[in-house]
Specification:
Blueprint: H1 2-12, E1 19-23, H2 66-74, E2 95-97, H3 116-134, H4 136-145, E3 147-151, H5 154-161, H6 167-171, H7 174-194, E4 199-203, H8 212-215, H9 225-248, E5 253-257, H10 260-268, E6 277-281, E7 306-308, H11 316-330
Helix pairs in contact: 2-11, 3-4, 7-9
Organism: Xanthoceras sorbifolium
Protein name: GDSL esterase/lipase
Family: Belongs to the 'GDSL' lipolytic enzyme family.
Length: about 350
Amino acid sequence: MAAAAMAASTNSSSSSLVTFVFGDSLTEVGNNNFLQYSLARSDYPWYGIDYDGGQSTGRFTNGRTIGDIISAKLGIPSPPPYLSLSTNDDALLKGVNYASGGAGILNDTGIQRLSFDDQINCFQKTKEIIKAKIGQEAANKHCNNAMYFVGIGSNDYVNNYLQPFLADGQQYTHDEFMELMISTLDQQLSRLYQLGARKLIFHGLGPLGCIPSQRVKSKTGQCLKRVNEWILEFNSKVKKLILSLNGRLPSAKFLFADTYPDVFDLINNATHYGFKVSNTSCCNVDTTIGGLCLPNSKLCKNRKDYVFWDAFHPSDAANEVLAEKLFSSLFSAAAAPPPKPHS
């Protein structure tokens, strides 16, 4: 129902569609470039090698993010990073990307990044500016009609709970940790609603136990089963939370996008999609020091053969397959053709 309503609203006026994006490095488009001491950044060579112009932009992949590809499918430009805009910029009216590499649901996840709470604070400032520009009533309507994409939670596991030296892994059982995340997320999504969000899509987490940075912890290089079980449990709790929010908040059309099966299928049946390697990354990374693709790293010969670009992030080619699937499932009323294997 919500998906059909969203598809209808995007079809009617896609040129005027405004999107606000919140999340982590999977959707970041360059906010961390503006944070002087951030270690989670990708503004150096190899990142962006397959992006327009071949330069790094602060996207954590060799090309486009899933958000870039979905924006193009909706016929709108990919929203710019919030920190690149001046305080009073008219571009704030057209949609903004607040995503920040290293960010999590919890404020103690990551350092030198915009946490999800920080991102919501930035959106609150954006709304104040929109209000000053077009008046309160128009600003409320503008924010109600916009689409909100939220994809966050991976770092709460990968860079927090699953790190042996960080407090949360020792302080909480997994059940307690998950309850903390869900109750925090409940407050955060409720706050976005208070600020005007009505049409919101929350991207569930993918099988984190299968990303290269986790596989290296397995003696045989297999996916970490327990991590994937935790992620499935987290996704199912977020799905319940979204249903509960829709019940509690008048005219909320929040949607849970379950990307786990698609990512899992892409990794396990990579050849079906035209890929050759899904257990390690195209960029030869050192997982002991973070797993990002450094300027002195060696690249694979054919970047389109690899599902993963670095130890954490999908390649441009993989993002294309995943964006196709996500778009078809979200906007089924405007059904897109099924994803073709890339050449």
